[in-house]
Amino acid sequence: MNALNKKTVEDIDVAGKRVLVRCDFNVPLDNGVITSDKRIVASLPTIEYLIRNNARVILCSHLGRPKGEFKSEFSLAPVAVRLSELLGREVKMAKDVVGESARSLSASLKDSEVMLIENVRFHAEETKNDPEFSKKLAALADLYVNDAFGSAHRAHSSTTGVADYLPSACGYLIQKEISFMGGALENPKRPFVAILGGAKVSDKIGVITNLLNKCDTIIIGGGMAYTFMKALGYDIGSSLLEADRIEDAKKMMDEANAKGVKFLIPVDNKIGREYKPDTESQIIESDNIPEGWMGLDIGPRTQKMFADAIQGSGTVIWNGPMGVSEWENFAQGTIAVATAVANSGAISIIGGGDSAAAIQKLGFAEKMSHISTGGGASLEFLEGKELPGIAALDEK
Ligand code: AMP
User: Fold this and answer.
1) Containing domain of residue 243, as a range?
2) Whole-model pTM?
3) Segment 183-209, tens digit of pLDDT
4) Residue 253 lies in a domain
5) What CATH number is attached to the domain comprising 59?
6) How many structural domains is the chain composed of?
7) Is the CB–ligand 1 distance for residue 324 below 6 Å?
8) Contact present, 332 and 216 (Cβ < 8 Å)
9) Residues 164 and 215 in one domain
């Protein structure tokens, strides 16, 4: 599969057709009130394109984990209301997913009209990718568009199975993810620098292994860095350690060496006595962390070393914070890296989760080329894995 070769919404003739669009409307709700409509806003370009081009738009999504049965607190009805305000037109809400209400609404839909079916996870068959359920979803429409990148690493009926029964394409959100991340992996502007942080090495081994074949420099920060330091024989005190990953860490550093990839790990750290926001702290060299202390952020020399490596790069991919960035006392490393990425002038791609949150909080979002909408999905994409929700779509 070449993800860059997938049909987009602009490659299919949508006029007068019923188009089933898988969106990511998995919004945070508080007592039925949407507390952030970011995901709904993100879906607008594809929906508005379809409306402008006279499609009959049938939207679907999951919301939370209703575990295969109707539960009113997981209804998508509040999304229909908010979406209709954003679009400035009615969004008809079906009472079910593939039942009488959804079928009759979709049959009576006129050109440029929009409807939303209920939460696909009200049916247990959805997450099992059940062919009969996929067929029922497909029967609502003539064409299928997937725009839910955050769910594209899941082979479910509405993300994958339905594409077996309908001509398909990706929407603008998925297209943007593919073009930035796929572009970086296939043909990066060099030097290509990857920055990986966060708590666990085990989560990132696949990504590092794949990027060792693509990048010029790999930067490691965050809690996972201490397993690498341990692999070099350093004392790491009570810092985070995955003892069963020390061998993997060694292997990755050896492979980087053999391939001529620069592999940077912290040379100094901000360490704390306890895992607490206001714990006593000091700056210390990486090979000298005292017993009873833990590394909670990268130190100032490391910040400078990482910033120097980022400056002048052509492409930067960043996933995971450099320290416990939720705590002001240990956020400086993440802020320094965010600032360096923002000022680098490189094509900058930010994985979901904490690094995206840090970028947003600092007001740097506008300076980034792309902030991924899917944490898990973007990691799997960077691992070089085929995402079922993208693989299932028709090629150009
Ligand atoms: P991840 O979900 O793997 O991207 O990890 C993010 C989490 O890693 C955040 O909650 C951070 O607080 C945590 N983290 C980053 N650096 C450290 C560290 N040095 N020690 C403990 N936790 C860390």
Assistant:
1) 178-382
2) 0.91
3) 999 999 999 999 999 999 999 999 999
4) yes
5) 3.40.50.1260
6) 2
7) yes
8) no
9) no
Say yes or no: CB of residue 353 within 6 Å of ligand 1: yes
Out of 143, 171, 199, a domain closes at 171
Please indicate whether residue 224, judged by its CB atom, sits closer than 6 Å to ligand 1. no
Would 389 be classed as within a structural domain? no
Residue 24 in this model has a pLDDT that exceeds 80: yes
Q: How far is CA 134 from the centre of its chain?
A: 25
Specify whether 200 is catalytic. Answer: yes
CB half-sphere exposure, 244, CA atoms < 13 A: 3
Does residue 37 line the site of ligand 1, with CB under 6 A?
no
For 393, residues 6+ apart whose C-beta sits below 8 A from its C-beta are 6, 7, 146, 163, 168, 169, 170
358's tokens: 């840090």
CA distance 331 to 337: 10
Q: Is there a single domain that holds both residue 12 and residue 154? A: yes
Identify the CA nearest to 77 among candidates 149, 27, 124, 125.
27
Cα(314) to centroid(ligand 1), Å: 27
Q: Is 56 a catalytic residue?
A: no
CA distances from 213 to 46, 113, 115, 132, 252 (A): 34, 47, 45, 41, 11
3-state secondary structure of 107: helix
Q: Catalytic pick from 6, 17, 18, 39?
A: 39
- Asked if residue 130 and residue 34 are part of one domain, the reply reads yes
Rounded to whole angstroms, how far apart are CA atoms 9 and 15? 12
**In which residue are the tokens 């062919």 written?**
131
